[in-house]
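Record 1 of the preview.
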Amino acid sequence: MPPPGGPCVQRTLGRTGQDVSVVGQGTWQLGGDWGEVQEADAFGVLDAAVESGVTFFDTADVYGDGRSEQLIGRYLKDRPDAGVFVATKMGRRADQVPENYVLDNFRAWNDRSRANLGVDTLDLVQLHCPPTAVYSSDEVYDALDTLVAEQRIAAYAVSVETCAEAITAIARPGVASVQIILNPFRLKPLDEVLPAARAAGVGIIARVPLASGLLSGKYTKDTVFAPEDHRSYNRHGEAFDQGETFSGIEYGNGVAAAAEFAELAPQGATPAQTALRWIIQQPGVTSVIPGARSVEQARANAAAASLPPLPQSTLDAVRDLYDRRIRAEVHHRW
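->
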């Protein structure tokens, strides 16, 4: 494993013009939807990420109903030298109807996030997987442009569930980046989304990079998750889009596929680091945002940026594994 610490490779985040680390820090876990995380442990994760060269945090106003944003805000107040770019998201605290995606609501949501994060201007605000019609609304983008003009936000972006939503958003000139599920069990974005983003100068933020932990190779068919963990209560999309949990794969099939994937890890790298390295080297990816519940996980995630590129034989093996075990289950849906 590469040693922790030191600078992490930086890439420009699309139309923001800002450089961010190729491995960022996802903070959904810090909000509580993955089981309880103590405050001291949350600060330890953020500190370990920064000390490992991470300069990009991704959060949302709905993670712990604002707890994730608040923790980041308090951490960065104590570490003004950290140089971290913070992307948050808005929209999921309201009823999911297009009529709620209007300027007055955007202002109110932004005011709450700015207070949580302790900033006057948010670095980047992403629409948080809104109803599909929202991505095609001129009024929505006009409202987002107004937020930029009012200096509430420096830039805006979208987080999507489907490749079709991503393509729609990329065509909009003000969209800085697209956040989408991408991992060795979710290859469809490679076909059209990443090429379109590259051509348009739009950044790609890859989320759910470990398929909710499956790709770490640590779980078995008998693993039990805490009741408050979405891997218990959202396996079939009961609370939000099924694709957010185990990338939408049936758990037993995912465990079996993950065991095969683990065999592809090069010497000195964990399966999780191998998955992150695979994502990093996909053309068009700006940053991958794994979560972490411990200092060790945060350091190991960041270290994936220092791994040598995976050889073509490994890339081919990932494609073969996907085609054999995963494609039929997820490719047509997302």
